[in-house]
Amino acid sequence: MSESEDPVTRALREVPRAPFLPPALRDRAWVDAPLPIGHGQTNSQPYTVEVMLRLLDVHAGQRVLDLGAGSGWTTALLARLVGPTGRVIGVERVESLIVPAREAVAAIDTAGVAEIRLARPGVLGAPEDAPFDRILVSAEARRRPPALDAQLGERGVMVIPVGREMRRLVRDGDHLRESAHGAFAFVPLIEDPP
Question: What is the pLDDT of residue 86?
């Protein structure tokens, strides 16, 4: 790593996108666009992932929820950012995406800090493991979900697209400071998993 390389740049270099794509699309991993992974889900555009990770400001040792883990790419990137003393829980609602995502994450996450779980019916996120230092949501919500607000720890940060606008929330006691960071397109967030 060069002295000027920041943690997000390093993670994006060290965690290639290709292994998280269906085999037929791996030669397109370099394309800066969302790519389909099946079941109406996508592996997000690399530029969008970079913006979200920078807004999230993940540090070593933190506990992170990755909601809408999909292919597992963001889960693996987050695992690299939290390092061996952190923990990342990826939650995905499409059951058939779980096994390939777990396999791809396991090949990258040598410290074993990340896991990908199937979303439980009627449960958004992983409240049993809350509070989280960081929450990354890779699906567009119609409104900010109160269930995720409740899982964010003190001084925690959540990055979530709400109505096509990227939002960054920071918990300060009972208050959440919110800022907007541009328009992005995502698959819809299903707030009541099947």
Answer: 97
